[in-house]
Specification:
CATH topology: Amino acid/polyamine transporter I
Structural class: mainly alpha
Shape: globular
Number of strands: 0
Length: 402
C-alpha cells in the first residue's frame, strides 16, 4: 500500500482541488433544492469532462512537458488566450474557496470572524507552499482525500438507512433562476476544465521527483482521483436530498451559517458525537482546495509568462503568488457577505469557458505534437467531439435564457 501511494500524487491533488465548493456547496444545494432530480446532470457532466481532464496527465506523461508548452506550440495566440482568461478568473475562484473555508473554520472553533480566519488560512497556505512546496502538498492530499471519502460514505449510508421513501425522478429546470443554478452546478462539477492544465504541471513535477513513474501509472493515478471526486459528489448530493429536500430549510449565502448547516447534515446522520470529526473533515476538504488553487494559479501564470516572454524568471512563482493573495483579499472585502453570488459568478464563468479548454486540449492531444502512441483512439476522439458539442449546446441554452 505504501509503495502504491508513493506512485500516486497528481490525481489526489486533482481531487483535492476539485472536492471543494463544487461538492460541499453546489452538490448539497442541488440535493436540497431538487432532491435527486439533478443526478443526471452530475453524472452527465462528469462523463462529458472526463476526456479533457484525462488529456492533461496523458500529454505530460508522453512528452515530459505540461499543456502550457503544448498550447504555445499550437500558437502563442492560444497561450495568450489562456493567460488572459486565467488572469480574469483566478481571483474570483480563490476568493470563493477561501470564503467557504473561513466560514467552516469560524463555525467549528466558534471564535474569530471570517475576516480573521481568511487571513489565518491564507497565511498558513502561503507558509506551506514556501516551506514544503510540492512534496508536502503531495503527501497532505492523500491523507485528506482518503479520510473525507470514508467519512462521507459513512454519513450517506446512515442517512439513507434512516430516511423514508426516496424519489429518483429526474427534472430539467426551465425557470431562469433554476437554469442559472444548473449551469453553475455543472460549471465546477467536478472542477473547472482549466484544472487539466494544473494536473499536467503537477504530473511533470511528480515525474521530476520520481522518474520511474510510467504513463500507465499516471493514468491509473488520474482515474483514482476522478472516481473519488465523482463518488463524493453523488454523496454530497445524496445528503442534501435525504436531509434537506422537502423541508422548509434552505442553505444560507453567509459562509458561517452555511458551514453550520453543512455540519448539521452530517451530525443528523451520524449523531452529535461526530460533529467535531465531520467539522474537521469539511475544513480539511476546503483547506485542501484553498491550498491547491493557491499553488496552481501562480504556478501556471508564472510558467505561461516565461513561455510568452521567452525567458525564465527566478521569482516568478513568488511574484504571482503575492499578486493572487493581494487580489483575493481585495475582492474578499467587497463580497464578504455575498458568498452565494461570488460562487455563482465563478462557476458560470468556468462553464462558459469550458468549450475553449475542451477544444484546445483535444486539438493538442490529437495532433503532431503528441507521440502517436499517446494519441486518443478513434472511440475516445469521437467521445471527445460529442462531449464538446454537449458543452457548447448547454452554453447556448443558458445564454438564450438570459
Amino acid at each position: 500500500m505504501k509503495r502504491i501511494l508513493q506512485k500516486l500524487g497528481p490525481g489526489f491533488l486533482f481531487a483535492g482541488a476539485a472536492i471543494g465548493v463544487s461538492h460541499l456547496v453546489q452538490s448539497t444545494r442541488a440535493g436540497a433544492d431538487f432532491g435527486f432530480g439533478l443526478l443526471w446532470a452530475l453524472l452527465l457532466i462528469n462523463a462529458v469532462k472526463y476526456p479533457f481532464f484525462e488529456f492533461g496527465p496523458r500529454y505530460a506523461s508522453a512528452t515530459g512537458e505540461s499543456l502550457l508548452e503544448g498550447y504555445a506550440k499550437l500558437g502563442k495566440g492560444v497561450l495568450w488566450a489562456y493567460f488572459i482568461v486565467t488572469f480574469a478568473s483566478m481571483f474570483t475562484i480563490q476568493t470563493a474557496v477561501t470564503i467557504v473555508t473561513a466560514g467552516i473554520a469560524s463555525s467549528i472553533f466558534g471564535a474569530g470572524t471570517i475576516v480573521v480566519w481568511t487571513a489565518v488560512i491564507t497565511s498558513i497556505c502561503f507558509a506551506i507552499l514556501m516551506i514544503g512546496k510540492y512534496k508536502m502538498l503531495d503527501s497532505l492530499m492523500k491523507i485528506i482525500v482518503i479520510c473525507l471519502t470514508l467519512s462521507t460514505v459513512a454519513a450517506v449510508t446512515l442517512a439513507v438507512r434512516s430516511a423514508g421513501s426516496i424519489s429518483f425522478e429526474q427534472v430539467l429546470p426551465t425557470e431562469v433562476a433554476s437554469v442559472a443554478f444548473l449551469i453553475a452546478f455543472m460549471g465546477w462539477m467536478p472542477a473547472p476544465l482549466d484544472i487539466s492544465i494544473w494536473h499536467s504541471v503537477w504530473t511533470v513535477e511528480k515525474k521530476r521527483i520520481n522518474p520511474s513513474i510510467t504513463p500507465t501509472q499516471s493514468n491509473f493515478d488520474f482515474n483514482v482521483g476522478y472516481v473519488a471526486t465523482t463518488i463524493l459528489a453523488v454523496g454530497f448530493l445524496s445528503l442534501g436530498a435525504v436531509v434537506m429536500f422537502g423541508s422548509e430549510e434552505t442553505f444560507s449565502a453567509n459562509g458561517t451559517q452555511f458551514a453550520n448547516q453543512l455540519i448539521s447534515m452530517y451530525t443528523f446522520s451520524l449523531g452529535d458525537w461526530a460533529k467535531i470529526i465531520i467539522g474537521v473533515a469539511a475544513l480539511t476538504t476546503m483547506f485542501s482546495t484553498t491550498l491547491t488553487t493557491l499553488d496552481a494559479s501562480p504556478r501556471v501564470m508564472s510558467r505561461s509568462w516565461e513561455i510568452l516572454r521567452g525567458r525564465s524568471f527566478k521569482r516568478g512563482y513568488l511574484f504571482w503568488l503575492l499578486v493572487l493573495i493581494a487580489g483575493t483579499l481585495s475582492i474578499f472585502f467587497i463580497f464578504i457577505t455575498e458568498m452565494g453570488l461570488l460562487i455563482k459568478i465563478a462557476t458560470i464563468l468556468s462553464f462558459l469557458t469550458a468549450p475553449f479548454y475542451a477544444l484546445i486540449n483535444l486539438k493538442l492531444i490529437s495532433g503532431k505534437y503528441t507521440p502517436r502512441e499517446a494519441r486518443p483512439s478513434k472511440f475516445l476522439k469521437f467521445y471527445s467531439v460529442l462531449s464538446v458539442i454537449i458543452l457548447i449546446a448547454f452554453s447556448i441554452w443558458y445564454l438564450s435564457t438570459l
